[in-house]
Amino acid sequence: MRRDAIFSTELAPIAPLQFSGGKDRPLSLLLPSYNCAVSIIVVSFNTRELLRECLASLIAECGRLPEGSAAEIIVVDNASRDGSAEMLAREFSTAATPVRLIASEVNLGFGVANNRAIEAARGRFIVLLNSDAFFHAGALGRALAQMEADPTAGVGGARLVNRDGSWQPAARSFPSIWRDACLLTGLAARLPHSRIFAAAERTWADPGQAAEVDWVTGAFMILRREALEKTGLFDSRFFLYCEEVDLCRRIQAAGFRILYWPEIVVTHLHGESSRQVGDAVFSEHEAQVVLWRMRSQLLYYRKHHGWQAHLARALEENLYALRFLRNRFSRIPARRARALEALRMIALMRQAWRETQGGRVSPPAPW
């Protein structure tokens, strides 16, 4: 059996995970001693140039840690075809902070790739960082200090900003049918300061204020090992999307807090993978990403809300049906294009429903 083969699994309760230390010997995530203060994990898929920039800034940031706070960097390459692994070996093999490579023969997805690195990590804390994310000076040290100071913190998140310094929503509320409806209809965007309509992304909140939240984005998060020991790692059935929502939900249920710290600043080159329907017809790649989002959404609703998976499907299909009816006879080409896209979205949701058996089964990976 190939090491990287992933198979479809039924949605059963997630038990706390134990990992093997060779020859299937059980090895707890809570190692008796740690080789370093923090393990920073970066998952990369065809992002060679961004990965180079990310690692260079990350190594510089590790050099700013207080004396005695050693760090390691683990890069999981998800079967990139752009020479990312070769670049890493060529340019970072002698870096001041050790950089370890886990090269996968297949695309494992976000959660499983991080799981593999966490199994190998030797740090007291785990930091997950996107390859398109870059610490501001001192951010890593401040994140470690916050986790050290508050043993109730299971997960910590940062203030995410764009290249120009503008703010990105990073600390969010758990999905619900109402919150999804506000996002899909555009109410959340039109009323960003409303606690009722903009609850999903918490755009009403002051980004300069620390807060306890439901979940933080996987572009940056710092994790406490004790929390992972109680809950297990990412649910491998979420190939992409919803995996960090699910993990934060389980960590919160285990009695830990999910915290947002505005003094920890990370630049994130936020590329919208799943986008609102716009004026251009979907490319095959865009349709694939939207399908992944829909699959994960159905899996999440079935796992945490049971029958509400039906409502999640009905919400999207009905909204896209209304969009189709509103635009189909328009004389404006862009509106007619939106009508066609609405039909495509309905077809994608129906495909996601079939392939996940209504959110009960994860399709074989890689998606």
Descriptive terms for the model:
367 residues; alpha/beta; Spore Coat Polysaccharide Biosynthesis Protein SpsA, Chain A; 2 domains; two-stranded antiparallel sheet; 20% strand; disordered N terminus
Decide which structural class fits the backbone.
Answer: alpha/beta
Distance between the termini: 19 Å
Count of strand segments: 14
Task: Please tally the helical runs, counting DSSP H or I stretches of 4 or more residues.
Answer: 11
User: Mind summarizing the main beta sheet?
Assistant: 10 strands, mixed
Number of folding domains?
2
Roughly how many Å is the radius of gyration? Answer: 21 Å
CATH architecture assignment of the largest domain:
Alpha-Beta Complex
Provide mean pLDDT, rounded: 88
Gross geometry: globular
Content of β-strand: 15-25%
CATH topology of the largest domain: Spore Coat Polysaccharide Biosynthesis Protein SpsA, Chain A
